Structure formats: C-alpha cells, structure tokens
Amino acid sequence: MNEKFGIILNRLIIGFTFAFVYQIVIGIATSLLSLPLTGNIGDLISGIEKIESEQGSIFIVWWVTSTIIITAIALLVVKYKRYLSPYKKEKNIHIPPKITAFTAIIIGAIISFLFFLLDLTIGSLAKIDSLTDVQAIYQAATVGDFAPLTVSLTFSIIAGFIIVGVVSRTSRVSQITHEIGINDLTRLSRIINKPKEERTTIADTIGLRPGALVHIGERKVDKIRLELIEFDKDSIIENRDATIEECLESRRKSNVSWVNIIGIHDPEIIEKFGNVFGLHALHQSNIMNTELRPSIEISDDYIHIILKMPHFRDDKGKIDLEQVSLVIAQDHLLSFQEIEQDFFDEIRKRLRENVGTIRNRATDYLAYTLIDAIVDSYFVILEKIGDITENLEDELMNNPIPNTLQTLQLLKRQMIMLRKAVWPAREVIDSLQRGHTSLIHDETNTYLRDTYNHIIQVIDTIEGLRDVIGGMVDTYLSSVSNKMNEVMKTLTVIASIFIPITFIAGIYGTNFSYVPELEWEGSYFVMIGVMVIIVLVMISWFRRKNWI
What we know:
Elements: H1 3-33, H2 42-49, H3 54-79, H4 81-84, H5 101-125, H6 134-142, H7 147-167, H8 170-176, H9 185-192, E1 199-200, E2 217-218, E3 225-231, E4 236-239, H10 244-249, E5 256-262, H11 267-276, H12 281-287, E6 295-298, E7 303-313, E8 318-328, E9 332-337, H13 345-353, H14 363-398, H15 402-434, H16 442-507, H17 523-544
Parallel strand pairs: 5-9
Antiparallel strand pairs: 1-2, 3-4, 3-5, 6-7, 7-8, 8-9
C-alpha cells in the first residue's frame, strides 16, 4: 500500500471512529440537558453569551466536561490506532501514561477549537442543505447526490489529522503543565512564555568571585542521579541509584570506587563532593561550566580532566557535545555527566563479569577505559557523518536542491565543533601519559599511548571529512552554476532563432501605405517559407557548433 494513501486511509478511520463515538456522547448529553449542544467551542461561546442565565453556566460546565471527554476519546483512539489502521507501517505515537486534568482540558480545548474552525470552513465552502449523518448520506446517494458523503469523508480525514497532530504533542503539553493547578495560571503563563532553551552563559558570571558554583549551559536532566560501583579483584558492588551519603562514604574504603554523577546543575551536590574529595574550588566551578574546552589539571592528590563526548541526534540530524569531567584519585574515580546516555555500558559489563584485568587494576586503568570509550565514540559519530556525505554526493551529482546546501552548511558547522573538541583532547591525553604523577602507572601509560593514536586517527578523519564537505560545497555551487548556464544557453538559442523571423514579421507589420509584396497573392506563404528556412539553417548551424 502506498505510504501517503495508507496514512490518509488511517486518518479517515481515526476521524470517523472519533466522530462516531463523540456524536453518541453529544446525543446523550443533548437529551439529558435539553440544550442545543454543538460539541465544540461553540458551546463555550453560547455559555458566555448567556452567562447571566442558568443555561449559560450549564453550557460552560458542559464545555469543560466535553473537552476532557474529547481528550479521553482522542487519546484512546490514537493509542489503539494500530487496531483500527489498515496501513500498519505507520509509526506509533508516544503518549504519556498519566496526564493531569489541566493537560486534558488544554488538549481538548485545542481539538474543540480546531473542529469549530473546520465546521466553519466546510460550512462556508460546501452549501449543503441535507444533513451528513448516515441516514442522510444514504438517502442522498440513492438519488445520485454524493455531496453529503464527500463532506463526511473530507471532515473525517481532516479530523483524523487534527486528532493525531494534537495528541502527538501531549508530552510537550504535559511537560508545560506539570504540577500546575487550575488556580496557578500566572505560573503557567511564565512557563509558556519562557524561551525554548534557557541557558546561562559565561557572560552571566561576570563579576562573580573565582570558583563561584554557577551552572553554565543548558540543563539537560531534571533530577540528578548517582551511580556507585565498588570493586576489587574478588567482588563488586553496584548501586544504580545511590545516595549522596553512600557515595561519600566510599572514599573511606580500601577498594576501588567509581562514582558517576548524572546531572551537574545542582551546586550543593557538586560542593559536597568537592569538599569531601578535596577538590579545588576552581575545579568544582569548572565541572559546572559546560562551555569550557577539554583540559587537564594535575595536582598532588588528584587529576582533573574535562572531555567532550559526542551524541548524534537522529531527530534533528545534528551532533550534541556532552561535557564529561573525570577526577582521578588514589582509590576513587569521580565522573560527572550531563545526561544519562553514554558509551560506558561495555565498561560496566566488563566490571560485572570480570572480563580482562580491569578488576585487578587501580583507578588509573579505569579512567583510561572511560577516556578510551569517549575517544572511540567519535568513530561512531564520524561513521554516521560519512554516510550522510555519501548520500549528499549522490544528491549533488543527480539533483542538487537548496536544502542540500543547508545540509552542507550544517555539516561544516558540526565538523568545526568536533574539531574544537578533539584537538584539545589530544593535548589532554598527551599530557596525561607524559605527566610525572604517581597516580598514573607505567603500565597504564602504554594503553594511553594507544588511545593517543586513536585520537590522532579521529583528527585525521575529521580533517578528511572537512575537506570532502568543503569540496562538496564547491561542487554544489558549480553544479548550480552549470544548471543556470544550461538554462541560459537554451533561452539564448530560442531567442536567437526568433530574432530574424521577428525582424521579418516586424517589417511586414509596419503601417506604411505601400508595401509592394502585400499586393502579391503568394507573399504570405513565401514569408512563412523563408522563416522556416532561417529556423532550420540556424538549428543546423547550432548543432554543428555543438551548442544544442
């Protein structure tokens, strides 16, 4: 089944199912309340117009109730649309398992308003005297009038798109209205009018004391989560949701402990870890600053490393860089991440299953494995960018469009961002393996040299892709220029052919009273013949010159 036709058919079934169920609800409510209910925002308008009467209050209460009913029906229809849809390849829509009543009112109000506009639009375009219920459609069709059927199908299809489109935004509306009561409308207004990405920049910290704990960047998680892994060669203890006290207590134990903090926006938590583990105030501040370049600070008691870990977002087709801070000490390792996703799952698996020598080593080797995983993550991202560039090359050769140039410009910015993240990381790893500190053993330096070779390979790949993308931009511009030249050549050839015959037509179109050829009966046919000969001669000459 064709994808577009399948989606339209699905929307038809969804819209029809919703309309059928909701019309039953409207019919029952109309009978019980003895009021002319419309089932959309028109009920609210009627209630406002009759606000001084008892009916006005009933209309308004019914509208609030109906919006919740609309939401419930729409959510159920969309949630179980796989049982209704003939076209099964359409992706499912994520709907939160629980939403507040306020969210339901907003969703229902949007659907109700859009249905109201749909009724007005169809009513203004289609002048139909008969009703569009099933009986009216059947009676009209028996006499050859299919207008009610057409209107009904059109309404159902558009209604289906409205329902799916609005319900698919339930997660966003639920996030906006999270824990908002009906009486808290002012707070709702502030949240709705808040910028899409609320960020704190370095400019906001001008004048603050050195080491002030201010989160700089975008807050990417709502709640900070702590992971604790304690191990030695014989045993391992893993706690995926550890408390702060358990993580701080691990410092006093003789085994190796790895504390992973997911979320760096809370200064109190950062300060607690910093004070207990003896981190300098400036290093604590740097952990919360996500706009810093990769760096390394080696002190007597610990090593502080900042690196960038890339993530490819398929929904936007772009790369996000997550800052990862590592604190390497004698018997413990602290890692600070911005988000849950990482490339450390294989390391956790090796720790659990005691694969290799990782459980027999100290924190420096564990830190090496994390750094190596971060470096190797660039290969995953670069492989995806390589696939994108291959597709763009085919597109450039076949049919370049303006969107192609936009994609190329986005890729150029992404490669610049990766380059700014990788080049300093090269210096970090080089300093780590060459630094004279007792925290890094000689055996670990051998592995760090291998990681250094990996990051050199990453840099070479980035530089190669940058050259390829830069060349593709030139190819795009050349391709567009060639297409323009082809168009201009075609227009020039056509204009050149018409110039002489236009000249002839212009002569005989003058207003002189005496033109000898006009008195001859065959002059018209001779003129047409001369024009045809001129055209044929010019086309033949253009072909010989390979201009056409």
